[in-house]
Amino acid sequence: MKIQEPTQSTSRETCLGIPFVEERPISEEERAALQLEARQSLGRSCAWGCSAPFVFFIFLCIMASVFPSNNDATTVQILPGIVVMVLGFAAGAACFLLANDRYKLRKIAKQDLRNGNIKRYQGFVPGIDKDNLPETPKTTGNIAGVDVSVYEPNELEIFKASRRLWRVNGTRATKLVFLLEEHTAFQPEQAKIAAKWVEPAPVIAGNTIDISQSGRRELSEQETNELRRRSRTAWRKPGLGALLFTAYFGGLAIAQWRSGSPIRLEWTFYVYVIFTIWIDVNFAKIARWSWRLCKDANSGMVIITRYPDEMNGEEVRRKGAVIEWLPNSKNNWTINGEPAPWRLRG
Predict the structure, then answer these.
(1) Which of 183, 214, 226, 248 shows the greatest Cβ crowding within 10 Å of its Cβ?
(2) What pTM was computed for the model?
(3) Is residue 6 part of a domain?
(4) Among the three residues 133, 168, 183, which one is the final residue of a domain in this structure?
(5) Residue 335 domain boundaries
(6) Looking at the predicted structure, is the pLDDT value of residue 29 above 70?
């Protein structure tokens, strides 16, 4: 399978770590499939939506027949009616949710029809040593119901508008999956030159290596911009959760203090407090990591370490990986010229 090189730009676009190669218009067959899906989804949405009140009415009739008419009924006599009522609400809600899901699927199909483009990603998944592939690759993974091998180049086709996965290695995805695109800066040419001058790090004890002889290089402007973007955005989601939970319990404590009423705490309160503390601690860790990424962006340097070759007697069995890592956050930046896995998560 021939892999096309992506067109040069300020950043490399990937999906699940697989590089973007081209964008193409949808075919007539794909257009017809989307139109059929839109019609079927609308019909199913209407069917589920109309079924919801009908299903609830049936459960209501059943509840009326099993609910005791006397006011002195015991809990055991009332319980069947309560169970039927809960099931009725659950069944009605399930019908409404299914109707909503089918209608959303119709909107997605219409959106993809209007845009009319599919993005194609092709290549190896990240972390694979292309120079040391097994002789008989085996299927070792599954993407949206399609078996794939991590030791062979894979191809993903994704609708540009909705980011819905359409095909995997030419086979239509059996599950509805939406995949985000990732953008990482290209490694500059000077990085490859700098790596050639770095000698393999010696092993000093067990699996410990001496990195004192590692090289270093400057980050490109695109790499620095990527680092700053990640340092600004990494803390936002956990920060919002920490703010909401902390503000809620802080406000509750202030209101309790100002009221002057005696405090009676239930066991659930302690569960919420422990959960809030866990969220705050997690946010503090991510905020600290974001601050270190910002320091790495300001320093504009990465350390280059070449791991020792794996030997079989006098023969080199496997070349040691060339790792570029950030000195402040201690995160890997590239592995053999490819972005580190944490950079391929959106």
Answers:
(1) 226
(2) 0.68
(3) no
(4) 183
(5) 187-344
(6) yes
The answer to whether position 3 is within a domain reads no
Nearest Cα to Cα of residue 334 among 220, 206, 179:
220
How many angstroms separate the CA atoms of 287 and 231, rounded? 9
Radius of gyration of the chain (CA): 29
Can you name the residues that pair with 22 across neighbouring β-strands? 120
Q: Name the domain boundary from 157, 183, 209.
A: 183
Whole-angstrom distance, CA of residue 175 vs CA of residue 166:
9
| The predicted structure's pLDDT at residue 75 | 61
pLDDT digits (tens, 9 = 90+) for 112-123: 999 999 999 998
166 in Cβ contact with 34 (< 8 Å): no
Q: What is the pLDDT of residues 284-338, one digit of tens each?
A: 998 999 999 999 999 989 988 888 777 666 666 677 788 888 999 989 998 888 8
CA distance 304 to 337: 11
pLDDT (0 to 100) of residue 4: 42
The angle subtended at Cα 186 by Cα 335 and Cα 128, nearest 5°, is 30
Domain count within the chain: 2
Residue 190 token pair: 């000077």
Phi, psi of 285 (to 5 degrees): -65, -45
